Amino acid sequence: MNTLRFYTKRIFVVVCVLFFGILVFIASRSSSLEAQSLSDNIVRKGIQNFPRGYRILPRPGEQLAFQSQPGPVHNDRVRYQDLGVDRQVDQEVVERIQMHLSRSDLVTQTLSECAVNETLEQYWLRINGNKVPKRDSWERFYSDIGTCDLYRNEEQIDELLHDMSTLPIKHVQIMDGGTQVKLIFTFDNDKQAVFKPMRFGRDYETDPNHFYFGDFERHNAEIATFHIDKILGFRRAVPTVGRVVNMTKELRDNAEKKLKKTFFVSPAKNHCFVGKCDYYCDTTHAICGAPDMKEGSVQVFLPDDRSVPRKHNKSPYRRTYSKKTQLAVWQENMDFCRDTVKTNPQYAHGRKLLDLVDLHIMDYLIGNQDRHHYESFSVFKDLASYAIHLDNGRSFGKTEFDDDDILMPLRQCCVIRPSTMLKLMHFYAGSKSISETLHESMSKDPITPVLAYKHYPALERRLSKIMKYILDCLDRQTGGPSKMIMNEYHNPSVANTGIEDEDDKDENAKL
Ligand SMILES: Nc1ncnc2c1ncn2[C@@H]1O[C@H](COP(=O)(O)OP(=O)(O)OP(=O)(O)O)[C@@H](O)[C@H]1O
Ligand SMILES: [Mn+2]
């Protein structure tokens, strides 16, 4: 009997030990899981969601996550006033600029900015008596391409934008040229446009370890730049609009064979394609729908360059496009414009230098460091051509960084068109800010809001910096503002040969 009691006691002890042992084991496991999900949360949500006093330092060498592709954005028309964007106006800068300009009549000066204002339609009629067709919005846009700007009639452009975002797509092919994936859409009316698909969400910031030449293209940057160019009064950017397409019905089913082959369904059951291009055309960088809807930008095709020829011009302010030599001469020598650009026969006479300054003012606002070449029409034989503001896909990548080097043409050459000066002053000190005007202009786009709103304060900040650089130039003019604000630049010490730049087919802009 005693032995039996002894064994029962022992069994009881063993069972107790086992029971508590298992309890301790479970408790310790669940607390380590909790810790893990806590640290997962830190990674996912970022440190800012953590209790006060709790600081998680980034691990050395931590890199940005490659964000997954979001679905198309649903329209939310936010009132600008509700965004609380501050204008950055320095009243002293305004007053000092106004003092410099007090004896100039810029408004009258702008009237003679465009010496010969002719459209393609008028030009062809004059040169060879040809009448151009104007059957659809594409042909009306082409016929109205001008000697001083791409378009004037905004109603006509709105019609074109509407057609590009709604007309049935008949054929889709891969677009050659350039570095990243682009498609050519042919619509029901046989007219064409360039489609750049969305890669990232609107709030994506460029990886700081990427060079400007390796940065991803952003479809919404193409759309936003079209609007910025328009509100700045340049009208030299190619009309571009947003569109949400069906990856299967609209793209795959109408795709040429070599594009169709690259379509697949991802493990997440989304429809994707890879396309064919020099950079980022592989399965890990595939363009994926949600599940088969895809947002992108649609840009009108410029007229066929066999009938409306264009030239490719190398910019004197192009960067090095090299990982090794990172600074170009103009980034280190503030006399570069005086010594090298103003003395270059291409820039010494006429509109070209002023075009370059306009283009870089726009690039500064949009944060585009990738302006290596620019195209211009060479169709108007007897007239000076202007820079077409094409290829703006690498802008709007950084909201916290202003690259003042982009403004070097303005800072070094110290020249500006009267209309540009007036427009900038209007946005800086007038009734409506640049970001409000942009917001209104973009609100008509089918994929509005085109930009993340965090870009608006960046625009205001950059505009205020431009105005400070302009004031700096005005302060330095010994001959008064007319030495800086002009319709055409002329360097008296360089002979005016009237020779236009040679076409530059050099493809040195690749990675
Ligand atoms: N709307 C258009 N109409 C006609 N041609 C165009 C149009 N857009 C682009 N192209 C032509 O295709 C070329 C490449 O386009 P784009 O520069 O946009 O591509 P990309 O991939 O951004 O190139 P890169 O990486 O060199 O900047 C342009 O230089 C131009 O000649
Ligand atoms: Mn580009």
From TrEMBL:
Compartments, as annotated in UniProt: Golgi apparatus
Residues annotated as catalytic: D370
Cofactor entry: Mn(2+)
UniProt GO cellular component terms: Golgi apparatus
Start and end residues of each stretch annotated as Disordered: 492-511
Keyword Transcription regulation listed: no
Skewed-composition ranges (Acidic residues): 499-511
UniProt-listed Pfam families: Fam20C (PF06702)
Residues binding ATP: Q180, K196, E217, Q299, V300, F301, L302, E375, D391
Keyword Glycoprotein among record annotations: yes
Domain FAM20 C-terminal span(s) in chain numbering: 263-477
Family designation: Belongs to the FAM20 family.
Major localisation: Golgi
GO molecular function: ATP binding; metal ion binding; protein serine/threonine kinase activity
This protein's UniProt keywords: ATP-binding, Disulfide bond, Glycoprotein, Golgi apparatus, Manganese, Metal-binding, Nucleotide-binding
Residues that bind Mn(2+): E217, D391
Protein name: Fam20C domain-containing protein
